[in-house]
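EI: anyone free to look at a 178-residue chain?
SC: sure, send it
EI:
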Amino acid sequence: MFPWMTIRDDRPLLYLDVDGPLIPFRARFPGHGPIVGTATVAAKASGNPLVERLDPADGRRLLALGCQLVWATTWMADANEVVAPRLGLPELPVVDFPEDESFEGGLHWKTKPLAQQAGDRPFIWLDDEITDTDRRWVRTHHQGPALLHRVDPLVGLTDGDFAAIHRWLTVQQQGFTS
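SC: here you go
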């Protein structure tokens, strides 16, 4: 059990990867320079020039989902120091993944730990490496509802991604009130 999960929170968990979903592999605004005026300075200060690809609107939109946000990224605690402030997010819990990062039978190395950590809670996992193998495994092994949503790593989170998450959350809420 993870220490931050000792207080029960019935909101769906939202596991969030950084590279791909939040920092796309292509510039979000080609030819427009940094997203915000100080992004270039902040990017150089962080040691990662790609943080200028973060879109502060993503932070507001993620918070508006009403989920318990959790970092599920190789950035680990650095996500709270470098990414969260640029998105206007508070410090978030960080999944402490096991050292063994293997793709067993095509299963992503994050899949089992995230499903196990979620227990029976509903969860959303936003990542650019999710496959049908991961979805099948979670459907078979996770006791609660789950949305494993692959984000196109070239463009990062889009209106379409947020619409899909909203649809899924709406269906889940209707199930709770029926």
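EI: The first helix runs from residue 39 to 46.
SC: 👍
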